[in-house]
């Protein structure tokens, strides 16, 4: 069935949508007269073809595919970064017409299609990962890949749907509404591999400096602002109003893109100023020479008797070379030490032991290892970073907090043993519960190193936790093993995301990565040196790499550490306020009474159920799990129990509230009214606590899953309640 522009009478539908269309603000008279007189005959030939393309379903799909393609081409390691400044314009053409009104009744679909292409091009390496290391055939790996990118495309779908819904009823310029909505979506939708539009600008230092206030969300805001401003200019051009005879700069239609341009220039000016300040601070700061060993060891060689000896010899030999070149600190990658260590390991092995780490050198060594803790008859493994001082004494130990799901652990593998039987090759590491910093003495002064393992360096909230330590780091050190992904774009994407931690906290960052990309990043986010990305499985015999660079030991700075996601929260608050205004103008204002009652019922059900089932300890476990606040400190059995009980209790309570709401609202409002009240209550219960505590850290996909399940059951309750209301009672 063909679509009709939603701004036309033919697009009006029955029920609340029809009422909404009738109450939508009409375009200003001048705009209406101009557009009424604008026929295709008056347009240039290329513009007529574009207009025809936008009006057809196939054309819109092609434009969405183009938009998604431009976005992933702007990412590493395609690195055509300017494309992101205009890559969303085709999508905006599909979503909004020349009068600024929604063009389609299916905005979520078109946003979702854009997201599929953007994520598909950026995460193509998932298929190879699943096939090579998950031992899955292509027919099994492809659906999992599609499932992942479909989930991550939800952000684009929500962006499109919310933008069109708000723009239908509120006359707020798309130039500013679009970036606000995008940031709100990026803030609230967690990913397994967290990423932002900001990833595309990692190699453009003046653009990313704003992250020391806003985090990556600020950079994403600027990018979408540019896209929306360019869209607005294109609209003015197609309406033949780009060059009025008088009032060019003061014309109301030009004010939003003009203000956007000023904002972008201010952001760039701020970036140049902060780069100058960082350069001055780094010049005055003490330096240490940090050596990085990138041994380029294949993933299947690790911990294999007969092969691990060579692996260890390579690391030791390169470390001796770095020590001779004057290294003050040497860093080996994640899991680089091939022999498991006991948890009580406190000192390096003696000289005659082949397991000795500092063999032939005494330079302090930070390395990754597998450590084991005795649990009855079993050994529990940890992914650990350790620091040896010049005397071979362990000065610090840190266990990876955020394990990669389906890579390093299976959720509740002990409780759901069938998962282990289905996917026996996946490891099951124990999770660390705290961040820490390592003491490092240099020149008679004590400094601190901030260890991060694997993808912990791409999680903004984890970085804030690290810098909240009583001894915040003067230098960040990330140890990673990206050999799982081969010589794909993933190692470069990983590096691009990690760069933001240096900008946010104004501290240098060293990355030691087994097969690349090892790198040195300064406090302004600039790459000083980097190693190659290799795939030893495809190109055996790749030479190992030893890197050496002077890094500054700086006191941490940047407001982001204190502000957290305040910027994202403000954008979300504005979007919510605009949403309430739009709903009121549509004739369906938010009913705060039912919303508050629904919220209290959901929380009351949680509290009562927890008290009945397990007492105050279970109440604490419920809310610790719900907020994802130190939930990794709960015993796994208790965390599992709390998780499934929360889902069950909220679903039942949501069903009951839905029935009540469905029977409460009158027949005109049943289609839409009551849904928002219930969804607001659910989001306030499941999502708001995680955002408030700043715990959107990459392991919170459960937030979306739980919220979605509860919402589905609750909305079904509304529909059932409405049906019962319409059914006459039998006498």
Overall geometry comes to globular
| Poorly predicted sequence stretches spanning 5 or more consecutive residues | 1-39, 241-249, 667-671
What proportion of the residues is helical, as a percent range?
A: 40-55%
Which fold name corresponds to the CATH topology of the largest domain?
Nitrilase/N-carbamoyl-D-aminoacid amidohydrolase
Arithmetic mean pLDDT: 84
- The level 1 CATH classification of the largest domain is Alpha Beta
Total domain units: 3
Radius of gyration: 28 Å
CATH homology superfamily name of the largest domain = Carbon-nitrogen hydrolase
Architecture (CATH level 2) name of the largest domain: 4-Layer Sandwich
- Which structural category do the helix and sheet elements fall into? alpha/beta
Oligomer: single chain
Total strands: the figure is 13
Largest sheet geometry: 7 strands, mixed
Q: How far is the N terminus from the C terminus? A: 45 Å
List the helices and strands and how they pair.
Elements: H1 15-23, H2 29-36, H3 45-55, H4 57-73, H5 89-95, H6 107-122, H7 125-132, H8 138-152, H9 154-169, H10 174-188, H11 205-208, H12 211-214, H13 216-238, H14 255-284, E1 287-294, H15 308-324, E2 329-331, E3 341-342, E4 365-375, E5 378-388, E6 394-399, H16 417-422, E7 438-442, E8 445-453, H17 460-467, E9 475-480, H18 490-505, E10 509-513, E11 519-521, E12 527-530, E13 545-552, H19 560-563, H20 566-585, H21 592-614, H22 616-627, H23 636-664, H24 675-686, H25 688-692, H26 701-726
Parallel strand pairs: 1-2, 2-4, 3-4, 8-9, 9-10
Antiparallel strand pairs: 1-13, 4-5, 5-6, 7-8, 10-11, 11-12
Helix pairs in contact: 3-4, 4-5, 4-6, 5-13, 6-8, 6-9, 7-8, 9-10, 9-20, 10-13, 10-20, 13-14, 21-22, 21-23, 21-24, 22-23, 23-26, 24-26
